[in-house]
Specification:
Elements: E1 19-20, H1 23-30, E2 35-42, E3 45-52, E4 54-56, E5 59-65, H2 69-75, E6 79-92, E7 100-111, E8 113-115, H3 118-132, H4 145-150, E9 151-157, E10 160-166, E11 184-187
Antiparallel strand pairs: 1-10, 2-3, 2-6, 4-5, 5-9, 6-7, 6-11, 7-10, 8-9
């Protein structure tokens, strides 16, 4: 298990025992997600934008319109902060103060780099499709040159990163353990449901 030393930006300070810096934990959290939030600074103002992502090796890969501000800023090499969070359960304690959430999260700091070579762009877009629905890429029409030109793809190396996780039940105070209040965890699960077929209106 490869563990990187935390930096000043990635070191978990609040409840440090919940922090993790090994690539296996970080990659596992990233590989079970679909949406990240990307923080950038544009014209002196911070902005956080939700977007789809995929992990390709040691990089987070993002895509969007070649005219979007996120792609323009990141493609120019700007620094960014990328976060991914999964909610696994609501922790119900015997006191209001000790209610919590079980979660898994990753924070990545890095600089964007535009992917412009056609083969590399196609590989990144293939990775997106595989995250959306494995095997789908082989069943659909691939992007044509005009679509590739209209799509910007950027990578952010997963080098300066940390994970933070909470698991388990409530941490009640000893004097509250005898209260007649239900305590435990309400699991939260993200699941795919049965597909709904799209039928063209004039079919």
């Amino acid at each position: 298990m490869e563990t990187r030393s935390p930096t000043d930006r990635t070191r978990v300070r609040r409840l440090p025992d919940r922090g993790a810096y090994d690539r296996e934990t970080i990659f596992a959290i990233l590989d079970t997600g679909f949406v990240c939030h990307v923080g950038i600074v544009e014209s002196g103002s911070p902005v956080v934008i939700p977007t789809a992502y995929a992990r390709v090796g040691d990089d987070i890969v993002l895509h969007g319109s070649s005219k979007s501000r996120l792609m323009t800023v990141l493609g120019g090499g700007a620094p960014a902060c990328v976060t991914v969070t999964h909610v696994d359960g609501f922790v119900m304690a015997r006191s209001a103060f000790h209610h919590s959430i079980n979660y898994r999260s990753v924070v990545i700091f890095g600089r964007g780099e535009a992917i412009t070579e056609e083969r590399a762009k196609n590989e990144a877009l293939h990775a997106f499709m595989e995250r959306l629905h494995p095997g789908r890429w082989d069943a659909v029409r691939p992007p044509n040159p005009q679509e590739l030109k209209a799509t910007a793809v950027v990578r952010i190396p997963i080098e300066e990163a940390s994970a933070k996780l909470r698991t388990g039940g409530p941490l009640d105070d000893p004097e509250d353990m005898t209260l007649d209040v239900w305590a435990g965890v309400v699991p939260v699960v993200l699941a795919r449901e049965a597909p709904i077929r799209h039928v063209p209106e004039h079919a």
